[in-house]
Target: Phosphatidylglycerol--prolipoprotein diacylglyceryl transferase
Amino acid sequence: MLIHPMPNPIAFSVGPLAVHWYGLMYLLAFAQFILIGRLRIRQPHIAAVGWKKEDLDDMLFYGVLGVVIGGRLGEILFYNPAYYFANPADMIAVWKGGMSFHGGFLGVLIAMAIWGRKRGRHLMDIMDFIAPMVPLGYAAGRLGNFINAELPGRPADPSLPWAMIWPNVDNIPRHPSPIYQMLVDGILLFIILWFFARNPRPRMAVAGMFSLLYGCARFFTEYFRTPDYNVSFGGITISAGQMLSVPMIVLGIILLVVAYRNKQQAQPALQTGSGK
Model:
């Protein structure tokens, strides 16, 4: 049995400025977006529709806004509205943690729709392009949650070799759920999606596969995480995270069905929206 190391959430300080590990994980997520994106641009079927390194740099600015604003609003509205409306000053305290993936997902959708309108790109072509870059960024965020000793798992069998006591919660052995989600929802999903996206796919197929796989993975790993709250449908009780994952599963199925029925390929950006 293990004990959570409870590291200092502040990585280092420069004068009065404290740099938190959670913030560094987001910087790591954005850095891998550029790195993985440049590898993706080298794929022949991606280069053939005109994706360039300059697109990544411009897209990242919109994506950061979508992730941060959407993720924080999702945390406030989906998970802890009562707390944040009672403590409005904490709404902007992102360094303490508290970012909703589902909120960030919606934020990125809106941000990419705005960017695509500017550049003459179809939204689904954008989402197909960036989908393989998302899981490793998510994994970095979950590592930040673990460092912050957030999202403790449900009680675990003490005989489980990696069962872990979280001193900031209690003395009960628990599943290290942020690590599970980092490995399954993040790294495993990246591996599967990267290989799927290596070959040409119909428009919406890669985005649909991401939505389906993430929804299923998150629904599964939520069984090991202490729920923020539970909801019941027809006598079946699920966690808030599972409830928010169901629409992603449904969306993924719909996108895949439509994609393989239409089999329409991505198109180059319109010359009038190229930004040149």
